[in-house]
Amino acid sequence: MWGAGGSRRLLGVFPRHLENTMRTILGALALTAALLPAPAATAAAEPQAPSPGPPPVAPAVVTHDVAFTTGDGQRLGGRIFVPPGARGRLPGLLLIHGSGKGRPWRALETEAVEFARQGMVVLAPDKRAAGYSKTRRDFGQLADDALRAFAVLRARPEVDPAKAGVWGLSEGGWVAPIAAARSADVKFLITVGGPGFGALRTQAWNMVNKLDRAGIEGSVRSVLGRELYRLTSDAGLFPGDRADAAGTLRRVRQPVLAIWGDRDDQVPPAESAEVFRANVPGSLTVRFLGGGHTLWVSGRDKADALAPGYASTVGGWVRDVTAGRVPPSSAGAAPAQRSLSRDLPPSAWWEGWRAQLAAAALLVGVFAGYLVTGLRRRAVPSRAGRAFAVLGLVTVPGTLLGAFQMIGAANGRGIDLGPLLAGRPVVWVVLQVLALATVVAGVVLARRWKALPLRQRVLAAGGALFLPWALHWGLLLP
C-alpha cells in the first residue's frame, strides 16, 4: 500500500484529535458484542400427573443486605442468602458476575437461592459501574472488588471462614481465578463458562457462531469476525484481549470445579476445558452439563431457573471439599464443538488503526477536496472525475460506519443484520456495489492520465489508494 517511511511521515503529521475521534468511534461501536450472558433454550414442559394437592412449600432462604467498599472508594451493596434452618457455621460462597456494567446482585439471585438450598451461605454482590465499560475494564481490579466482598462474607457469623470459596460466571471465569491466586483465604474455586483464552480469541469465536446461526456468508464474515476485532485490539480498546488465562490458572492452588454447558456457543467449552486441565496444578473436577453458556433454563439477564443437576453438582462438590474429601482430578467427556477457535495475530503496521485511519482520512480528503475545489474554481466538469469523487466519498465512510453498525447489532442472543441477499446483508451488498462502481470510475479516469489537468491527476493518484483499501476490507471480494 505505502512504503514504511511514507507511512511514518504521514502519521507524524496526522492530527492527534482525529486519532482520539477514531478511538471514540471504535470504542463506542465495535465492542457492543463483548461477552454478554445469553439465554439457553426454554425447557419444554412435560405432562404431569394430577396432583392430589398443592406441593409443599420449601422453607424460605433467609436474606441479609450488606455493603462493602472497593479499593477506589466505591460503595457497593449485596445480599447474603442463608439456608433455611441453618445451624452452626456453614461453607460460604461468593458469586462473581459475568460481563456488564453495574450489574446488581439481583442478576445472580436464582443462583444464590439455589446454592443456599444446597447448604451454603451465599453472597451475591453488586458489580461496579465506575471504571468499567465496554472498552475499559481491569480484571485485576474486579478481582480486588471480589476479595473485598469476600472479606464481608467470611466475617459473617453464619460462615466458617476456613470453608469459603468463590464462583465466577463467564467473565467471572477470568476474574475468580485471579482472586483465588491472590488470596489463600479462598479455599476453593468454581467457574461456569470460564474462558481458557483471552477475550479477543474468545469473542472472535463467539461472533463466528452468531454469523453461522444468522446464515451470514461471504467476505463480511472476515470483517465482522476478524478485522474489526484486530483493529480495536490494536487501538487498545478491547479489554482483556490478550488475557493470560492459562498463566492465571497455573497460580491457583485451591481445588477447582470447572463447569461448562455442552451447548455453550460463547466460550469454546472443549478447548477451554483442555486449557484448565493442562494448567491447574491441583485437584480439578471438569463437568459438562446440558445447557448453554450460563446454564440458565430461561431469562435474558437473569436466570428463571438453573439447568437440571447444576445446583446439586455445585453443592455436592463443595460439601466434599469443605469436609476434607478433596476429589482427585477428573473430567467428563467433552462435547463436540462446531468449530475450533483461532488466535488472532496482532495487526501488521499497515493493518493497524493509525494506518487505517490515515488511509481513510486521505481518501476522504482527496475525494472531498476535488469536489470542493471544482466548485470554487468553476472548473469544467469531468464526468469520470466527478463520479469517482462522489462514489468514493460515499463508500469510504459508509463502509466504516456500516461495518461498525453491523457488529453493533450483535448481543448475547445473536446478531440480526436485516434482510439477506445470497447470504450477504443487503447493506453490505450495497457497499460492495458502490465500491465496484468507484473502482470502475477510477479506472476510466486513470486511462486518460496524459490528457488530465493537474487537479484530476491529483484525484487519480490519491484515489489509487482506494483499490488496496477496498480489498483489505473485503468490499471487492465475494
TrEMBL record:
Transmembrane regions listed in the UniProt entry: 353-375, 387-407, 427-446, 458-476
Signal peptide, first to last residue: 1-43
BP GO annotations: proteolysis
Alphabetized PROSITE patterns for the sequence: PRO_ENDOPEP_SER
Ranges where the Peptidase S9 prolyl oligopeptidase catalytic domain occurs: 111-278
Keywords: Hydrolase, Membrane, Signal, Transmembrane, Transmembrane helix
Keyword Membrane set for record: yes
Superkingdom, taxonomy of origin: Bacteria
Name of the protein in question: Alpha/beta hydrolase
Organism: Bailinhaonella thermotolerans
